[in-house]
Amino acid sequence: MTKAILVGAGIGGLAAATALSKTDVEVVSFERARNLATVELGAGITLWPNAIMVLDKLGVGQEIRARGAPLHSFEQRTRSGRLLARWPMEEMARRIGAPAIGIARPDVHAVLAQAGGYGVQTGTEVTGFIEREDAVEVTLADGRAERGDVLIGADGIESTVRAQLLGATPPRHAGLAIWRANLPIAPGVPVPDVAFMLFWGTGKKFVVFHSGPRQLSWEAIVRAERGGSDPPGMSKDVVLTYFKRFADPVRTLIEATDPNAVFRTDVSDRPPDKHWGRGRVTLLGDAAHAMTFAVGQGAAQALEDTMALAARLDHTRDVIAPLRAYEEARMKRSAKFQGLAWRLARAGAWKAPPAAILRNIVLATSSPMVWRAQCKDMTLPEY
Ligand SMILES: Cc1cc2nc3c(=O)[nH]c(=O)nc-3n(C[C@H](O)[C@H](O)[C@H](O)COP(=O)(O)OP(=O)(O)OC[C@H]3O[C@@H](n4cnc5c(N)ncnc54)[C@H](O)[C@@H]3O)c2cc1C
Question: Is the overall model pTM greater than 0.90, yes or no?
Fold first, then answer.
């Protein structure tokens, strides 16, 4: 029996533990956070059909559908509300066999924690690993060590496993900041009848989607330097100032949001790497292929990783070749989304009005072609 050590219990780590629980691999998981319930702080997330298909295979797809909201329509508009593109998302769901779902991030995490949170040792930080010929050993901040056959670093964009494997380099800042919030649907909240909407401005972008039966989530993205912050309690006012010229429902949605629900982070990624692993060590999720929010594929690609990894580690005695086969199966596809997400995020940072006008023309004219490519890309490959 193979023993895998899993570092990190985010969406990627928990999904990997769930996928591996269906194989003959024994899993030991370490998570730095003291409590699993506090790991996935955040607003909403869009899970495209490829993600939902993995979640179905993990046995949690129905629970995700029940907690989230189907994204049956998608529109891109200009700041003033002019329609640039409309996608028939229901048709994509029919073609692929799974819908896109908007959902609160803590809900995704909670559902996966129920399925894959067995035996996670919380409050336990991994500080490094030692490669031995017949095993890999992780060292823990509390002085303990754990030996296994395989080490899977699912420890996020600032991964410790990755730093030891590939060198410690900072993530790449996209020149953007993102403010996010969840907004319960209540009297007075302007509820868009389009499930998923995106508004493009100059150096600014606003996204809103349904993320539960009675909940909306929004993201406001603005060109900004790395490490910026807002005066305490002022994030909502800062966003309102940036988006005051945007058409409704943008302004009214921001106005209706609880100021304490709004939080700000930088937008960063990592460029694709040539390797993700060595010997008995590999990476998964953001540790392997961190990408910007812009194509809604970070979590989806982490979920796809789990399928490819579990299929290759199941019933095998030699673990090294299967780990390289897993990386080989996943690197090209995840790198494609990393590149796409970077370019699309950067296009939201264009500030010069002529560049923004050109971008809007390209978005409108290329929409049918991009839609066809999207339907193809959102189909889950056979792993
Ligand atoms: C603004 C924004 C919007 C997004 N929108 C979408 C979207 O719509 N759709 C989508 O599919 N994706 C989206 N993503 C991407 C998605 O959120 C991530 O790709 C995904 O959550 C990555 O999961 P992960 O488990 O790989 O990493 P993480 O969530 O970062 O989890 C890593 C875990 O490892 C733990 N850890 C770290 N170091 C150690 C250590 N040394 N020892 C022990 N534990 C450790 C951390 O505490 C954490 O719990 C978005 C991301 C952002 C930032």
Answer: yes
Total structural domains within the chain: 1
C-beta of 126 in contact with ligand 1 (< 6 A): yes
Q: Is the CB of 154 under 6 A from ligand 1?
A: yes
Domain that holds residue 146: 3-171+269-377
Mean pLDDT of 251-271: 96
CB 159 within 8 A of CB 13: no
Q: From ligand 1's centre to the CA of 157, what distance in Å?
A: 7
Answer whether 285 contacts ligand 1 (Cβ < 6 A): yes
The pLDDT tens digits for 17-63 are 999 999 999 999 999 999 998 887 779 999 999 999 999 999 999 99
**Ligand 1: which of 14, 28, 32, 210 to mutate, judged by most atoms within 8 Å of the beta carbon?**
32
pLDDT tens digit string along 294-351?
999 999 999 999 999 999 999 998 999 999 999 999 999 999 999 999 999 998 888 8
Residue 156 in contact with ligand 1 by CB distance below 6 A: yes
Cis upstream peptide for 249 (omega within 30°): yes
- Sequence-separated (6 or more) residues with CB below 8 Å from residue 194: 73, 74, 75
Question: What CATH number is given to the structural domain containing 8?
Answer: 3.50.50.60
Q: Give the integer Cα–Cα distance in Å for 86 and 80.
A: 16
